[in-house]
Every structure is written in C-alpha cells, then in structure tokens.
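Saturday, quiet lab. Running sequence design on the structure tokens for the scaffold JK sent over.
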C-alpha cells in the first residue's frame, strides 16, 4: 500500500465512510490484521457509494450518475489517480492486488440492474447476486491472498457462498423497504402481498446452504483475515436466526436488527476463539 499523504488521506476517507454506514462491517474490519484493514475499507467505500447512487439519489438522474461513476472508476484504475478520494483509494487496491476487471464490471452491471429491474427471474436473481455480493467477497479475497493465485482459486467458491449468504439475508431483512421504497422484490416468484411460509422456508434453506459452504473456506483463511471474516459470518448468522424465528407477516412489517450489545458479545467471542485457533 502507498504511504504518500494523498493516498493515506483517501484511504482514511473510505474508512470514515465505512464507519458511518455500517457498524457491523466496521467491527469486522477492525478485527482484521492491520495490513488488511485499509484495503478492505477502500473496497467497502467503493461499493457503498455505487449502492447509494441506485438506492437513494431519487431526485437525480441515477443512470447518468452511475455512468459517470463507472467512467471515473475506469479512468482512476488506468491512470492510477483520481481526485475522487473513494475512487483513488479503490484504484490503489485494484492495482496493488490485481483485482480482475471482470469483478468490477459484474458489480457495476448489478448496480445498473437496480435501475430497471423490479421482479427477478431465477437466472436474473443469480446474476444480480453474483455481481452485487459474490464479487465483493472475491475482491476482499484477492487482498487476503496477497497475490497467491493458487490460494485464491482454492477459496473462491467459499468466498462466493459467503457473499451470497450475506446478500440473501439482507434481501429477507429488507424485503419491506425494498418493496415500499424501490418497488423491488428480489426473490424469484415471490409475491410480496402473498408471502407464504413455504416461500420463506425455501429461501431459508437456500441461505443455510450458502452459510455451510462458506464456513470451510473461512477456516482456511490466513490468520490475519480469519477473525474479521468469521465475525461478519456469525453476525449475519445471528441475524438470519432471528429472521427464521419470525412468521412471514412479521418480516413484512419490520426491519430486524442485531442489538449492539450482542454485536459486542460476538466480537469478544470471535477475538477469543481466533486467539486460541478454535474458529469452527
């Protein structure tokens, strides 16, 4: 990582963005080895701002903004500099860790899908999850593997599964706000006005499979990355368990969250287990 004043400042901007937008991811990143923290903040800052464009800038031309964001991203990566601090910090990570353009292209493509898609077929659902979540896991994995492509290829399926599990839990948690505020229903063949127990159980079974597939890969991560990723894993698993215990009608009425006290307990537990090498 570069340590010139400008680059260091832009990386800290991405850290600030993460801290303001997500306490859970901030806790997870703080648990990583120091060498991984700023690169992961840079990835989060990039994906968070792209997500902001399609989710919240309702009084602006979202398509034009996303086009500009994509163009500026490509220029930043190619020229290795940007006056946009989020894009400058992101291009540092992309270039230093050789993050594939295909991952970035897939992510922007999924963001663009949010501008037009309101109902998702099974194939579009998988396409969206790959670009919006799985590739983010793969970007982070590139950082954790530090240029070891054999290691990256070995852990790639688990990283995709973990990203998919996180995204699907988000969809289930946010099903009401996604529909009310954006007119979206991500789950294929699910009627928001007739969300049946069997629909919810099928979604939960799919998420459970993703969590199971992800855990083996987490245990194989380098020591400096394992604790932080595991913390995010058990946080989302806790959130998933809360959602599973609710009937469909409750999920449609409220946004479920994990209390801060529970997050701190999970943090302490993860630090302890990671210290004695008992993450399982």
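Result came back. Writing it out in full:
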């Amino acid at each position: 990582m570069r340590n010139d004043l400008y680059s260091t400042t832009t990386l800290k901007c991405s850290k600030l963005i993460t801290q303001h937008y997500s306490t859970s991811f901030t806790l997870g990143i703080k648990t990583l080895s120091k060498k991984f923290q700023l690169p992961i903040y840079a990835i989060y800052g990039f994906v968070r701002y792209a997500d902001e464009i399609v989710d919240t800038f309702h009084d602006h031309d979202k398509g034009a903004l996303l086009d500009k964001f994509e163009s500026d991203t490509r220029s930043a990566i190619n020229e290795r500099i940007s006056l946009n601090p989020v894009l400058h910090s992101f291009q540092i990570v992309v270039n230093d860790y050789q993050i594939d353009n295909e991952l970035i292209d897939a992510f922007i493509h999924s963001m663009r899908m949010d501008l037009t898609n309101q109902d998702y077929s099974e194939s579009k659902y998988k396409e969206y999850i790959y670009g919006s979540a799985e590739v983010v896991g793969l970007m982070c994995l590139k950082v954790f593997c530090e240029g070891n492509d054999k290691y990256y290829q070995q852990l790639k399926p688990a990283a995709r599964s973990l990203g998919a599990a996180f995204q699907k839990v988000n969809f289930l948690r946010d099903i009401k706000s996604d529909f009310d505020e954006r007119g979206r229903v991500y789950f294929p063949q699910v009627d928001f006005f007739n969300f049946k127990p069997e629909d919810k159980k099928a979604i939960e079974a799919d998420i459970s499979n993703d969590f199971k597939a992800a855990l083996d890969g987490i245990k194989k991560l380098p020591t400096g990355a394992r604790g932080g990723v595991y913390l995010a894993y058990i946080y989302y698993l806790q959130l998933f368990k809360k959602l599973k215990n609710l009937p469909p009608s409750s999920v449609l009425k409220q946004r479920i969250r994990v209390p801060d006290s529970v997050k701190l307990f999970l943090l302490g537990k993860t630090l302890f287990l990671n210290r004695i090498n008992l993450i399982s």
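Notes for JK: Residues 5-275 form a domain with the Farnesyl Diphosphate Synthase fold (CATH 1.10.600.10). The chain has 13 helices and no strands. Ask whether to fix the surface positions before the next round.
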